[in-house]
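Handoff note, outgoing to incoming analyst
You'll be picking up this chain. Sequence as last confirmed:
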Amino acid sequence: MDALSLAREQFAVTTIFHFLFVPLTIGLALVVAIMETIYVRTKNPQFKKMAQYWGKLFLINFTVGVVTGIIQEFQFGMNWSNYSRFVGDVFGAPLAVEALLAFFLESTFIGIWIFGWDRLRPSVHALAMWLVAIGTSISAFWILTANSFMQQPTGYTMVNGHAEMTNFFALLGNPQVWVEFPHAIYAAFTTAAFFVAGISAYFLLRKRHVEIFRSSLKIAVVIGAIASILLAVNGDAQAKHLEVAQPMKMAAAEAVWQTTTGSAAWNLIAGIDQSGGRNTFAIQIPGVLSLLSGTNHFTGINELQAQDVQKYGPGNYIPPVATTFWSFRIMVLAGGLMILLALYGLYLLARRRALEERPRYLKLLLWAMALPYVANTAGWIMTEIGRQPWVVYGLQLTAQGVSTSVPAGEVAATLIGFTVIFALIAAAEVYLMVKYAKAGPDAEPTPAIPLETVAAV
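Most recent structure output, in case you need it:
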């Protein structure tokens, strides 16, 4: 493999691995803040135990997410130096704000939350976790502001072959941000809800700490139902936006090669022949594509390719269609299953049925812990692979962004090294999560370190 292929593989590995932790961090911060707020309002000590228990799992996940994020950023200078030079004047601003504002905010108040138990008033301590939750969401906003520029460049001008920012507020007002950011946040809340629901189901099936995990499961079901439905609604809005902003991505996601007019069928599954520019077979549902897209004219891949050649010059502007098509369907399927599970739990709660007396449902929730991770990963793959061959849509090709002076052997070595490091980190994460999750809420809390010691460090 050449340096470009290896650099793409490495970025895919590090990004997907890092993104396993980000949604849970964002979502768990909200869940813990809600639980502690209920404790402040009700003075019920079981909600304090809940906040401490889920807070420990949040801290483990947060720490691993920070480590993997730092490793990921090294690649901009190592493997993608031409991209960094091309877009750094734009890309650097939101990343700098994220580090200086959002990350410092959440890190500071995480420290206050850890060491402030029984030192701060309960309401002030709960406020600290709300600020952590706000900080994690703000952090996601700035990262996605940078990513949205890659998807739909705005607020820039070209100077001597590279992009320079001309309007910072145009970055903030980028239409892509305002469909991408809510989608990521709703996905994060859904991820945390099913994580909490799965672990709660584990304890309820074993009749341990029933009171605490009954309440945890109720909170998770309500959050999961609301977030998963909002996620689907926003996903539809995002798809309609992409039909205008990145029509090739959506044509690939639907495997539509020829332009369709009138009532168009939706490809449920398809055999994709990319080299031949066609589908070898397809199981279709009549009229659904027109319904989903909201239009009776859906431009196909082949016509879009011809338009791009005319606009950008000779080249192949078609992304890997099979990967885009199937990742989109995997995401939608996983999201649909989560909606059904959450709504069924909400139905049981509305009928005042005890969730702990539904062992089949609890077992399903155990397996369903994997669904948000599948959906998040598939969605991210669809987002990034569907943009190819562009690294900055319409401005810079991926092949133009790679470092030209780094030999393939060095990229391969770092790819292997990062993969091994991530495997070790993953093992540590799983070990710690399983250990502290199984220990239950009665395990010893994180020891309170004297403030004098913290200050000395």
